[in-house]
Specification:
Helix content is about 70%, strand content about 0%. By secondary structure, it is an all-alpha fold.
């Protein structure tokens, strides 16, 4: 197996699993609280084929990996949720939004705990399994932390909309159509602009990296890997 194919296999597999379980969790919790939209469309499933977006889940991560990008990012087809169909729209929306990041943290814990089982893996496959588990830990924590940013349509934004007083929740909810543009602005364009003037404006990314590192360390401690 050449290095490139090996690298793709140990990054794309855990990424597909992380994104698939994240989206399926949203659909499952929405169904539990009364919205059958995702259920009726067959999206309450842990079958990756029901959630994979050809570009966002496969092509874009592969391009980033092959171009030696400093970060790996991807996304699945968003699970459709009709928040008005939920039994208690505001509170249930919070639960539906939290389901995705919570599932990623659970997967990260499972991956870290599985490090203890590597001694039972055949020697010729141990390194490949270890790299998959390591990347699964990192990817799931990054997805959980990134998605909890309080900007709609990210999960953290929907949690904020559900918990904040309506006077604050309403204007935040109206940002949802522009959420991805805001993210591109603060994560990519703002740092690029700052670098032109010798300023480090990459504050959000620094906070995300620090938080991610802290959560990974906590998971390693909890699972006895520290």
């Amino acid at each position: 197996m050449n290095t490139t194919l090996y690298d793709v296999s140990v990054w794309v597999i855990p990424l597909v699993i992380a994104i698939t379980f994240h989206e399926a969790a949203h659909g499952f919790v929405a169904h539990h609280f009364g919205d059958n939209t995702a259920w009726d469309q067959g999206r309450v499933s842990f079958n990756p084929l029901r959630h994979i977006d050809p570009f966002g889940t496969l092509i874009m991560p592969a391009i980033l990996l092959l171009s030696h990008s400093p970060f790996l990012f991807g996304y699945a087809k968003p699970v459709p949720v009709n928040f008005r169909a939920l039994n208690n729209p505001r509170l249930d929306m919070v639960c539906v939004a939290l389901a995705g990041p919570a599932t990623n943290i659970a997967l990260a814990l499972i991956a870290a705990a599985a490090f203890h089982l590597l001694t039972y893996v055949p020697e010729n496959a141990a390194q490949w399994v270890a790299d998959n588990l390591k990347n699964a830990l990192v990817i799931n924590v990054i997805l959980a932390i990134f998605n909890m940013m309080p900007i709609p349509p990210l999960d953290g934004g929907r949690v904020a909309v559900g918990l904040l007083p309506r006077v604050l929740a309403a204007p935040l909810a109206r940002l949802e159509p522009y959420g991805m543009l805001i993210l591109i602005g603060i994560l990519i364009l703002l740092p690029l602009a700052g670098s032109q003037f010798g300023l480090n404006l990459d504050v959000i990314s620094a906070i995300l990296r620090t938080t991610t590192g802290y959560v990974i360390q906590c998971i390693l401690v909890v699972t006895g890997n520290s």
